[in-house]
Amino acid sequence: MSRNTLIQDLRHTIDCMPMHTRVAMLQGVREDTIIVGAYTDSDGGVCPMLSAHRRGGRTTFIQFARTWDRFTKAPKGRSRPAKERELQILTRHLEASIEAESELITATEMGSAIAEHRVLVERREVEEQASAKRARRRERTAVAASPNRIPSWMRPMGSIEEYERAMEEVGRQKVRLGLVGDTAGPVDEQTAPAEERRGTFIAG
After folding, report:
1. CA–CA separation, 3 and 35 (whole Å)
2. How far apart are CA 52 and CA 25, in angstroms?
3. 97-143: per-residue pLDDT in tens?
4. Whole-model pTM above 0.70?
5. b or e along 49-70 (b: 16 or more beta carbons within 10 Å of the residue's beta carbon)?
6. Could you give the C-alpha distances from 174 to 128, 151, 185, in angstroms and in order?
């Protein structure tokens, strides 16, 4: 089996391990004396899987031990310290595997966050449109029910004061429309057109 194939097998086996096991193994490879051919030796050396196990990365992934021994061409019946090159390759692929899955998790979480945000935005837009419709409906109802929709000078009046205020409004309307110049006071009822006076005053 070629060296590249052995490395590919090692990487595939690493990718198949639980994330917490990969993280624990990476820490162990950096801190422990790593061996091949056995789980442990008399000098305190441990295999990568046992090193991960001691750091909380517990798993029964026997396939890694077999792939590791095959990759390192471990001697049968005895153990030896892992070579520097073997440790470098293991470390590099552990780091790459952890980083790749971390990016995948981040992308998935980001996609979920974006989707959730879109739902909230759409829901808010629907609620705002419904609220605007309700406000317009209330406004139309209020206008229809309000007596103020009829100009004061067109409503029947029951006192001199109401009549005078109505005449003042007529004068202001004329000024706004440009029919007459500004006046200094109330419109004189004698100068108002007869049709404006007719039927607008009811003595109290």
Report:
1. 19
2. 4
3. 999 888 776 767 666 666 776 777 788 788 888 888 888 888 777 76
4. no
5. bbbbbebebebebeebbebbbe
6. 41, 14, 13
